[in-house]
């Protein structure tokens, strides 16, 4: 069957005859996620804070000291506020995307840890059963002291028989 838009066509549904005037942009979610993580990681550094502080200081300094014709943002610095708000409005979703990807990775790692712990627990139970069976088997094995006492008893019995024959 032919595939359209990632879905298989069904014979019991009519075809979509509308064509989109503008194609939806396609992107690789993994590549975009890696970009979001790098961006979020950079925004959490002292370097980013230093750059942003430098930009804001230069912006305010230029617009406060420059002649009237060269200043592009008057005193309330509305344009600076707009730029910072725009930067924050893009940064927030990118940071959330990076956090979601990290959360997904943490879940996968936690599941792998849980499976490894379950395997280790099963191995420990198996080994403890083996040790218990070895202890039980060793309980039935004759010890050196037991063998010595039995051999002494046999030797004493043989001595008695020998002494009984010699007296006859």
Structural notes for this entry:
With 168 residues, this protein is mainly α. The protein has 4 helices and 2 strands, in the order E-E-H-H-H-H. It has helices spanning 29-43, 46-65, 78-139, 144-167; strands at residues 3-4, 7-8. The chain has a two-stranded antiparallel sheet. A hairpin with a 2-residue loop joins strand 1 (3-4) and strand 2 (7-8). Helix 1 packs across helix 3 (78-139). The longest helix is centred in the middle third of the chain and has 62 residues, at 78-139. The N and C termini lie far apart (109 Å). The relative contact order is 0.05.
Helix content: over 70%
For the record, give the distance between the C-alpha atoms at the N and C termini, rounded to a whole number. 109 Å
Which term fits the overall shape? elongated
Distinct helical segment count: 4
Biggest β-sheet: strands ordered side by side in the sheet = 1-2
- Please compute the radius of gyration using only Cα atoms: 42 Å
Weakly predicted, low-confidence segments: none
The secondary structure category is mainly alpha
Index terms:
4 helices, mainly alpha, 2 strands
Please summarize what this structure is.
This protein is 72% helix and 2% strand.
